[in-house]
Amino acid sequence: MPSNKTLLMLPGDGIGPEVMREVRRVIDWFDHRRAVHFDVSEDLVGGAAIDAHGKPLSDATMEKAMNADAVLLGAVGGPKWDNLDFSIKPERGLLRLRKDMELFANLRPAICFDALVDASSLKPEIVRGLDILIVRELTGGVYFGTPRGIETLPNGERRGVNTQVYTTSEIQRVARVAFDLAGKRAGRLTSCEKANVMESGVLWREEVQKVHDTEFPGIQLEHMYADNCAMQLVRNPKQFDVIVTDNLFGDILSDEAAMLTGSLGMLPSASLGATDATGRRKALYEPVHGSAPDIAGRELANPIATLLSFAMALRYSFDLGEDASLIEKAVESVLAGGLRTADIMQPGTAKVSTTVMGDAIVRALDKLAA
Ligand code: IPM
Ligand code: MG
User: Rounded to an integer, what distance in angstroms lies between the CA atom of residue 163 and that of residue 153?
Assistant: First the structure.
């Protein structure tokens, strides 16, 4: 049967291709076992695209991404491309996708699987049952603000500049996504900025409060300085339900939240645009971890974050919540069975390769669907 679900896969660099290979197997599984069909195409991004076309994202790939129902990305970057000019670094490929697709809302759920409470660097009682969601603004702030650059001053000194900038509509639209999600969860939203030192933080706070008062009075809203949030995340992470914050603070706080769950190798993400008139929204799914060039090609990578990102695609782009849950349950059962990639290895568990972890998850899917 022809499929109307188009999926563009961009494996990228480092461990990207190897974790994406495991997603391909799960896609095949859905095809054969659940009759859920995708039109899958694959293309280059990041360093891989630089090597092939001299740029981290070709216009043709950008065009494909614009037309896909969902884009699934592995990771970008690596030492090979570190010394390139800023404007053509691998990371620019990812940033262009986010910006041109207008993916302003980045959802980064941090869930601690029971089997992994001991893999966290925090005490088990601090992380057991943890289920928080960070909503990171993704197309504004200091990542894209101008002026930016490095200039040489008349006295020969150099000066580096980046600009933190937000408009009311940019703040409001991401706040709405966060309030809406909080409403589907425990009904609590923490908004983070540095209103004590930054004007853009003052505006952020005021606008989030306005959206609350006019549209979501039923959600419990709290404002918190981002540095305090960083501290609270390791002190008592379970106090949070949904956190909404800007692009840079979100980048940092989500890495911190990831470690609460045991490893960066566990954390998926969804980046969503606005819903258009036909109800469709552009979307990109990617693991929060990077390209990890130090372990690339050695069968050490944890494919779970990428598999869970695919599960998020099923849920948010294809309205296949049940199928998404199947993947999440399969991951949970494999972890409960004691299989671990190197990053989440614990005494008494069995260390397995990327491929064997993928095998085990496919087998668990078989069992769950039987
Ligand atoms: C992330 C990454 C990216 C970011 C890099 C690779 C550009 O750290 O998605 O969190 O800073 O946004
Ligand atoms: Mg990051």
Answer: 18
| Nearest residue by C-alpha to atom 8 in ligand 1 | 251
| Contact yes or no for 217/178 (Cβ under 8 A) | no
Per-residue pLDDT, 3 = 66
Q: What is this structure's pTM?
A: 0.94
Sign of the torsion formed by the C-alpha atoms of 360, 364, 365 and 370: positive
Domains of the chain: 1-111+266-370 (3.40.718.10), 131-260 (3.40.718.10)
Q: How many residues does the chain have?
A: 370
| Spatial distance between the Cα atoms of 264 and 240, rounded to a whole number of angstroms | 19
pLDDT at 1 over 80: no
Residue 18: pLDDT band with limits 50, 70, 90: very high
Cα end-to-end distance, the chain, whole Å: 23
Instruction: Return mean pLDDT, the chain.
Output: 96
User: Half-sphere exposure of residue 230, counting CA atoms within 13 Å on the CB side?
Assistant: 13
Residue of 246, 251, 306 best suited for mutating to test ligand 1, as the one with most atoms within 8 Å of CB: 251
Helix axes 247-260, 226-235, angle to 10 degrees: 10
Give the pLDDT confidence of 315-349 residue by residue, as tens digits: 999 999 999 999 999 999 999 999 999 999 989 99
pLDDT of residue 86: 85
Report residue 231's pLDDT band, with 50, 70 and 90 as the boundaries: very high
Q: Is the CB of 284 under 6 A from ligand 1?
A: no
Q: In what order do the strands lie in the sheet with 6-12?
A: 39-42, 6-12, 70-75, 281-287, 268-275, 105-111, 131-137, 242-245, 188-193, 220-225
**Type of residue numbered 268:** P
pLDDT digits over 105-128, tens only? 999 999 999 999 988 889 999 999
- Cα separation, 227 vs 225, in Å, equals 6
User: How far apart are the CA of 269 and the centre of ligand 2, in A?
Assistant: 11
Average pLDDT over residues 238-252: 98
